[in-house]
Predict the structure.
Amino acid sequence: MPQNTPPKDALLDAILPHVPFDGWSDASFKAAVQDAGIDPVVAHAVCPRGAVDLAVAYHKRGDQLMLERYAQTDLTEMRYSDRIAALVRMRIEVVEDREVVRKASALFALPKYAAEGARLIWETCDLIWNTLGDTSDDINWYTKRATLSGVYASTVLFWLGDESEGNAETWEFLDRRIDDVMQIEKLKARVRDNPLLKGLFAGPLWAMGHVKAPHAKPMQNVPGRWDTDKEGAK
């Protein structure tokens, strides 16, 4: 490998040709170590869980590739909802081998790795919102990322089985899901603006108004805090 290539990056590049056949497995990891010419001790030092750590690195590499594509694209004339859809589409389109993602989906569907898979999806959606300049600092911080996580995950699953030309059916599916999210936002606005509904939901709205977005980066194990400032507490 080139001298300036970090060992984990070299291992990730080396494992990708093996994943479609052997998945993110010990067999693939051993083959990557051999192909990359890396000392097994070093390989296990940078990837204690072997192929699992490389699957995580693969997902995060995709996030960075999405940002690079976004930086080269002008979305200023698009509606905000279309920008969201565009970034989700970019994130999917940077994938060079669909089978690699299929194997990763199977890996993170396992109970022992499901929480990590959910965290990776959340971080991708958090990155999308932050890239688009989201400034929400209340309950909306959570609802935006939660709903987009559902959109992103379902779109990826649809895409894995899509055989349409140019993935046209996937992009139509994505547009429908984004429209559903926007309908939820409109419903929330109507509740806030309607005196009757606002009174009916006064309790839940009061509680949600005291939830604040996390300030620490990266996210902590308990992402958020109860805003005691409004209660006069120190």
In short: Residues 27 and 103 are 14 Å apart (CA to CA). Confidence is low (pLDDT under 50) at residues 196-210, 216-234. The chain is about 70% helix and 0% strand. The radius of gyration is 21 Å.
